[in-house]
Amino acid sequence: MTEYDRTTGEPWNDADLDQLRILAAEDKALGVIAVQLGRTERAVLHKAKAEGISLMGA
């Protein structure tokens, strides 16, 4: 089975957003959130801003 690379521009789904909100509420660093979501820091930051989610240090 081929590994799936989330950095290919796949759309965010509800589970991704829920996880982003949880990690942000736990004050996780942007880099940690990006790794856990399998996304780039830039993608996480962009989505958080679009959704009105405050990130630690961002």
What is the secondary structure topology, with strand pairs?
Layout: H1 14-25, H2 30-37, H3 41-51
Short characterization:
The protein is 53% helix and 0% strand. The chain is built from 3 helices and no strands.
In angstroms, what separates the terminal alpha carbons?
36 Å
Range of helix content: 40-55%
Instruction: Give me the number of helical elements.
Output: 3
Class of secondary structure makeup: mainly alpha
Average pLDDT rating: 87
Overall spatial form: globular
Give your account of this protein's structure.
With 58 residues, the protein is an all-alpha fold. 53% of the residues lie in helices and 0% in strands. It is built from 3 helices and no strands. The longest helix has 12 residues, at 14-25. The model has no long low-confidence stretch (mean pLDDT 87).
Q: What distinguishing features does this structure have?
A:
single chain; 58 residues; mainly alpha; 3 helices
